């Protein structure tokens, strides 16, 4: 026997909620439009002649839940019970009550209502609706165990699940269980439904790069015609959020082509694309996205996430003035906006501007978080601002209630190391309240490379090998320290360690965008169609930089090109080739932008400084950690990198 959930207010609903069929339709319409207060007012003050119609009560329950009126849902429940509409007479009303109780967190009442349903006499569709409502409620309140318990009960009662069931269960499942639900969906013939496939893609995406691969598989198996905007956004975000920027841009290209079946990107799409452009330094694609935004989304400045993505793209791709302009135009800024701009100035070596922006942000009442503190400390490190960096690090906890993390310690070790304070950096590592990771010791090792300190470098390398034994970059760094200090036997030992462990140095590569195409160069690479001219120009420029006789003022070497080209064409790093390509193919006076995957070496740094003066051109080079602007024979880093 069902329990009567009457409340003292139920009589008011029973006496006042009387209206004709058109009133019911109006209540439903108002609820659907989100005008919940109007819907309830209409329910209470409708035409008093006939009894309340069952069609109005489900909408009223949903409106009560939307307004957090828990007692209102109970009153509607009581009224429905008295009118004989429950426990199983009306599936829509039952679903609305179960959904409302679940949304309001009154899960015991939802479970009680489900328990009182007579399984034998209740229509199958009504039972499925009831189970789905409770499962969705448990998922909404982050109770995965309860979700799966209700699902098992649903299966035991031989109630068939549908796409609604899966849309609640799949996001609540732990990563290891998602393939099982995927298999269930496929067996039931539901995996091909657009909503289910989209849900699987989004859920797999939470599993890192491996999850992104599974998300891509689900997406590729979808019929092209069934891929909607949600499908494209889900798979693109899966790759962008897991650092698979090249794949994300390839998906965007497909979306904009015939594969997209006319699906137009929205702000969510473009945020993911811009993130990938910033990661790769894909300026051409990013500029195309910004043109699209300006043409198709005229009110984009009110979209904070999109503006933040544009600022981050421009700051990380060398267009710092444009990033500042976008920032200034924003009607409302979040801490993400400030972080993008401060980090951008830091990457360009403008630590003083980054500090000034940070102080302005704090004065406007925005509290710093751990992410922006990493950007600020990194900016201080790149600019050699030891005192400022030390001050902000030491006051993080007292001034901003932020406890330093491993990332903050890494920034400080980097700052101290660059400043030549290696012993102070070692002491900081020893005083850390947590165990230093590979990044912390790697920062110290990098500083040892700058200052040619093999002794401290060996200490850092010993820890790194234990923590990150397969990171080839650190082996190369230690080998270079030994090379700089003339310890060739130690160089051989490190290289032997790499061979024994099957490690290979990551090849350096640089690229330049020109006329809509990306031109990629590797060290000693001869695959480019203009390779002969590129190497000839590099050789001439090196002769000029070294001050060899026979160099005319206009930059052309005397003698025949063949004579220069006869020299061995090896040992040419990728950034030299990229800059030479830019000099050959761009207009005089224009800036050449190069993106490099590794840190610029000292030799190339000297070369690019000199060539910027010889050729009277500006080169903007983004390496693995920062920007270098070479112009007039000097670099913006002031040789502090």
TrEMBL record:
InterPro entries: DYW_dom (IPR032867), E_motif (IPR046848), PPR_At4g14850-like_plant (IPR046960), PPR_rpt (IPR002885), TPR-like_helical_dom_sf (IPR011990). Keywords: Repeat, Transit peptide. This is DYW domain-containing protein. Pfam families: DYW_deaminase, E_motif, PPR, PPR_2. PROSITE patterns: PPR (PS51375). Residues 560-641 form the DYW domain. The keyword Repeat applies. PPR repeats lie at residues 228-258, 303-333, 334-368.
